[in-house]
Amino acid sequence: MLRKIYEIIEISNKTNKFSTLYDIGMFICIVASMIPIAVKSNALVFSIIDKVTVAVFILDYILRLITAEYKIQKGIKSFLIYPFTPMAIIDLLSILPSFIPLNSGFKALRLLRLTRSLRALRSFKIFRYSKNIDRIVKVIKKEFRPLCAVMSLAIFYVLFTALIMFNIEPETFNNFFDAVYWAAISLTSVGYGDITPTSDIGRLFTMLSAFVGIAIIALPSGILTAGFIDVLNDEKNKN
């Protein structure tokens, strides 16, 4: 019985109609659960949607927990390991905020309202039901080291340019964080314009930083594109 439940909730198989219907139903529930947190209204309909979708997510979590042995394949230990897997944590954090009792009369408890933003984590549940997202995850895992190298280069470049600019124009930047903020938006070529250099050397350095930034930003795009093509080719070869 548990094996059949696992095949329905965990394995997306075109030959298994129940599995397909379950995936479609869960996808609809995930999208619907986003509606109440996307509006400021406290209308009854939004409260009902939230309670219904939470009930579905709780049932889904329980079913995945009791069938964890088939997914983890480590015997009785599977039931202890599963709650600490990334998707299980996301599932739990997206459910719990709906059960936090709040009393507007206590200012301290108002801080707990921030936890309700965790309901936005429900959007990550879509990862289970999208093959394209699954492909992207595979690409990131496959190209993890090159991406980390590029990320390290970008962080070093931001800190390096921020340090130089902070010393070139100390009157423009109140603190080092402002310089880091400027370096980050210059690296990405966003340029909000809220912090701008005023001296000629500062503007010249900003232009050079922007040009180098374009090259650094282009690196992960090339890595991900090449990795995505490799994943698609692997899937074609398997078929």
List keywords for this structure.
239 residues
Please characterize this protein's 3D structure.
With 239 residues, the protein is mainly α. 69% of the residues lie in helices and 0% in strands. The chain has eleven helices and no strands. Helix 9 (144-168) runs antiparallel to helix 11. The radius of gyration is 24 Å and the shape is elongated. The model is unreliable at 102-115 (pLDDT under 50).
Architecture blueprint of SSEs:
Layout: H1 2-9, H2 17-38, H3 44-66, H4 68-72, H5 78-81, H6 86-95, H7 107-110, H8 131-142, H9 144-168, H10 176-187, H11 200-238
Helix pairs in contact: 1-3, 2-3, 3-6, 8-11, 9-10, 9-11
Mean pLDDT: 79
| Main sheet makeup | none
Provide the low-confidence segments as ranges: 102-115
Give me the Rg, rounded. 24 Å
By DSSP, the count of extended strands is 0
Question: Quick gist of this model?
Answer:
The protein is mostly helical. The chain contains 11 helices and no strands. It has helices spanning 2-9, 17-38, 44-66, 68-72, 78-81, 86-95, 107-110, 131-142, 144-168, 176-187, 200-238.
